[in-house]
Amino acid sequence: MNPRVTPCAVPPGTLISAYVEGAQFVDSQRTFTREAERTALSHLLHLMAATPGWIDALMTTRNRVVKLLGLKDLGRLGHIDLNREESTYQVHDRLGIFTLLANTPNEVLVADKDKHLDVYVSLSRSDVQADGTREIVVATVVHTHNRLGRLYMLPVAPVHRYIAPLMLARIPG
């Protein structure tokens, strides 16, 4: 893995921290960037738009397989329009495979919810540090609701723990 990206605790006081209790899966990774002016939403949109093709191919395969099990087709992670003005995003808008739940300059919270599981993803940024950098944290929290949700997470959890740091490493240092 990239040495710039390291596991960390879900930052206290973030919007996603309210969803950690009782979760069946929690993953949180951090890196640092000198892009101090970029908002949390801008970071997330650029990360999703830069999704490697092989990850979107995995999503396509996932969508075909889980449809047989009664889960919904999420589409592609990288299906993001970078020409859309950031200020036009509103709560409940779609961002790739997720729905926007909250958006502040320092944190964006998205989710995908269904009868089997709820997935929450947050990208948060810290205040600018003395060296001009900001800490960027991507945290994922999953609550499963039934056996199918738990079964789904068996292969997804290790793949997520590989892909999340890989994606976060794409944020310029």
From TrEMBL:
<protein>
    <submittedName>
        <fullName>DUF2867 domain-containing protein</fullName>
    </submittedName>
</protein>
<dbReference type="Pfam" id="PF11066">
    <property type="entry name" value="DUF2867"/>
</dbReference>
<dbReference type="InterPro" id="IPR021295">
    <property type="entry name" value="DUF2867"/>
</dbReference>
